[in-house]
Amino acid sequence: MQAAADGARQSVREETRDLLENSGTFQLGGFTVHRLGFGTMQLTGPGVWGPPKDHDEAIAVLKGAVELGVDLIDTADSYGPDVTEDLIKEALHPYPEGLRIATKAGFTRPGPDEWVECGRPDYLRAQCESSLRRLGVERIDLFQLHRVDPEVPAEDQFGTLKGLIDEGKVALVGLSEVKVEQLEAARRLVPVASVQNHYNIANRSADGVLAYCEQHHIGFIPWFPLASGKLSRPGGPLERIAGEVGATVSQICLAWLLRRSSVMLPIPGTSSHEHLEENCAAADIVLTDEQFQELTDARKELRRWALLG
Fold first, then answer.
1. Whole-prediction pTM value?
2. 15 in a domain, yes or no?
3. Measured distance CA(16)–CA(282) in Å, rounded
4. Total of domains in the chain
5. Backbone angles phi, psi at 120, to 5 degrees
6. Does some domain include residue 147?
7. Does pLDDT of 165 surpass 50?
8. Of residues 79, 123, 199, 212, which has the active-site annotation?
C-alpha cells in the first residue's frame, strides 16, 4: 500500500511539474526563472519566530517545491530569524542547477511579530555575510533590501547594495515595499532586478510601482499574493469563478496575478505538501477575458456597495 501511495504522489508531482511550465518564464537579470515561485516565511514558528512546528515536514516541503519545478525560492534573514535560510541549506544544498535563491536583509527581530528597520551599511554587510554562510553559497543570487530605513540616508543603503555587487557577493539586487520615487533613486546608484511589494487581487495600492516595473522590465514579487479580502465572500466573484473553472479560490488569486502582468512573480508560501501542489497547479489555470475583467473590476463594485451602504 505504501508503494502505491508513493507512486501516486510521484505521478502528481510529475503532472504538476509539467503544469508549472505554463506559468511562463521571466528573465531576472541574467537568470531565467519560472514566474511561479515559493516563499518560505510560513516555514517558521508563530509570529515568524523560531523553528517550524514540524521540522521534517518543512524540509519535505522545500524538497517538494524543487521536485515540482520551482526554481525561485524567496527567504529572508529575519524569518525566524535565520531559520528559513538554515532550512533551505539543509534541504537543498548542494543546490540543483538553475535553482535561484533570493534573500533579504534590513530588519532586526526583537521578538515574535516584531519588525524593526535597520539599514545601516555595516548591518546590511554583516547580514549579507551571514546569509552567504547560512545558505552555503559564495554569491547570493538576489539580495533584497527588506525595507528602506527612514533613519539612514537612502543613498547609503543603495550604495551598500552596489558595493556588494561590485565585490561579487551578490549577483542581483532587489527592493521591498518601495514607492516609485525610491525605486528611481535606487536605480541611479545600483541596477534593480526586482521589487517585492504588498499586492494581491484585493490590495492593488502598488499599481503605480507595478506599471514602473513593467516599463523597465523589473520583476515584481507580490507578497501576501493569496489574500483576497471580501472578494472571496460566499457567492462572490472569486468563489463563483473558481466553481466555473473547477479550481480553489487561492488558485484563482494566483491565476489572476499571473494574467495581470508579465513581470509578476508570485511566491505563495505554505508549510503543507497539499497546499504546495495546489499552488503550483494554479499555473495551468486559464481565465477567460471576461473572467479576468470581472475579477479586476470586482473591487470597484465592493467599494461602490460600501459607499451605498
1. 0.92
2. no
3. 9
4. 1
5. -60, 135
6. yes
7. yes
8. 79
